[in-house]
Every structure is written in structure tokens, then in C-alpha cells.
Amino acid sequence: MTSNHQILNLKYIDDDICRLESIVDVGGGTGTTAKIICETFLNLKCIVLDLPHVVENLSGSNNLTYVGGDMLISIPKADAVLLKMTLHNWNDNSCRKILENCKEAISNNVKRGKVIVVESVMNEKHDTHEVAELKLCTNLRMLATFNGKLRREEEWKKLFMQAGFQSYKLSPLTGHLSLFEIYP
Ligand SMILES: C[S@@+](CC[C@H](N)C(=O)[O-])C[C@H]1O[C@@H](n2cnc3c(N)ncnc32)[C@H](O)[C@@H]1O
Fold first, then answer.
1. Side-chain half-sphere of 23: how many Cα atoms within 13 Å?
2. What share of the chain has pLDDT > 90, as a percent?
């Protein structure tokens, strides 16, 4: 079975990731997604930002670097920022702050810079019964565990605009995951 890490990569093989020089995977954990991206795009410099204790004993490679830090404080500069299944752990105020820090991180490349958000988007009208049920359960778990939540497209749009972004594109990725490309 293809994991969500691989699916993200497949989607981007033919996409404009090839034109980027650097990407930072924010809340990228131990680098499972970043390693796949790095192995496919050998000229792309990839940084994984996660909490210091998560990355402290990890070694990078030619094009992979681990940085310990706090996304609520600052995010390393790069052409693009990836936030994969990370924002649903946070309430609206924290999401806005994280997105503002993402915008600052890509500020050196205002022409091509973008933030890529991979999340489940609530959409009961279009989802199959199984997918809607999965999202509702995930939403409850996020609320109970982190005071986070799954959001509808309108809620995401409001957060992106409040964080200072100008536009976004939403594409389906898998049955339950969608992909936002957000532009400053
Ligand atoms: C739900 S996991 C997402 C992991 C990964 N992006 C994926 O797709 O599998 C959230 C990640 O955010 C990290 N994290 C939590 N708070 C953070 C913070 N303040 N700054 C940086 N990373 C943080 C956690 O350690 C965890 O690895």
C-alpha cells in the first residue's frame, strides 16, 4: 500500500517542485517524507524542522538537514514550506502564527515561493460515507487531544488570508487528503 509520504512525492514529480532550490518540511518528524523528496530531487535542499528532542540524534545527508526549533517562533528560510498533517493539531490562533512564520520563511522568493499544506478538508456533501466518517473521527480526536480540528475549505481560506497570503489552489490528493498551494 502506498503511504501518504509516497503519494505526496508522486504528485510532485511532474510538478513545479523541480524549479525550487530549497524546501522546509515544518513538523516533519524524523524526515520520512523529506527523505523521499530528497532521494527523488537530488538538487533540492531539504530542511526538516521539528522540536529539538525529535531531531537531536538524527543525521542528514547531502541535501537533507535537520533543524531543531519551534514553528511558533521561527521557520528556516526556503523557497517553499511544506506543512503535512501538522496544522490540524493546532487551534486557529496558533495556525495563524505558524502560517505567518511560513510567509516570512519564503519571503526571499516572493515570485515562486509557496506554502504547501496537506490536510483532510471537511466536505460532507462530496465525501463518501466512509471518508466522511473517518474525517469526523479524526476531528473528534484532534479536538480531544490537541484542541485542534479538521477544517472546511472556507475556514482554511480565512486563516490563509488572515495570515497575509493572497491566493491559494486546492487539489485532491487521496480519498481523505487534500493539497493546498498558498501564495504570498
Ligand atoms: C502530526 S505530526 C506530523 C508529522 C509529519 N508532517 C507527517 O506527515 O507524518 C506533527 C509534528 O509536529 C511536531 N511539532 C509539534 N510542535 C512543534 C513545534 N512547536 N515546532 C516544530 N515542530 C513541532 C511534532 O513533533 C510532530 O513531529
1. 29
2. 60
The tens digit of pLDDT for each residue in 148-164 reads: 888 999 999 999 999 99
Class of 4-120+152-183 in CATH: alpha beta
Does the active-site annotation cover 88? yes
Provide the 3-class DSSP secondary structure of residue 167.
strand
The residue to mutate among 50, 55, 91, 116, having the most atoms of ligand 1 within 8 angstroms of its beta carbon, is: 50
Integer Cα distance of 7 and 106 in angstroms: 24
The set of cell numbers assigned to 8 is 505526496
3-state class percentages of the chain: helix first, strand second, coil last, to nearest 5: 40, 25, 35
pLDDT tens digit sequence for 24-82? 999 999 999 999 888 888 889 999 999 999 999 999 999 999 999 999 999 999 999 99
- Ligand 1 centre to CA of 50 (Å) is 6
Nearest CA to ligand 1 atom 1: 86
CA atoms of 159 and 175, how far apart (whole Å)? 23
Domain ranges of the chain: 4-120+152-183
- Distance (Å, rounded) from C-alpha 104 to C-alpha 81? 10
Question: What ipTM was estimated for this complex?
Answer: 0.98
